[in-house]
Design goal:
This protein is of the alpha+beta class and 61 residues long. 57% of the residues lie in helices and 13% in strands. The protein has 1 helix and 2 strands. A hairpin with a 5-residue loop joins strand 1 and strand 2. The longest helix has 35 residues. It is rod-shaped and about 100 Å long. The protein starts with a helix and ends with a strand.
């Protein structure tokens, strides 16, 4: 094997590693995007009352 073949082989192996690393990066970005799409439900604490026939509120807690 000549030096040019060795250099070519090393650069090919480095390119394969770069592709593998970039695929892991893309996979992580897809996970993050899916997590941001999920809505976060926040219920505001409120005060509720039920009115009977005589208009006197019955508080709920």
């Amino acid at each position: 094997m000549s030096i040019s073949e060795i250099v070519s082989m090393i650069s090919s192996i480095a390119a394969v590693f770069a592709i593998i690393i970039s695929l892991f990066n893309v996979r992580e970005l897809v996970k993050q995007r899916k997590q941001t799409i999920v809505p976060e439900l926040i219920f505001k604490e409120g005060k509720f009352s039920i009115f009977n026939g005589s208009n006197t509120p019955i508080p709920l807690r």
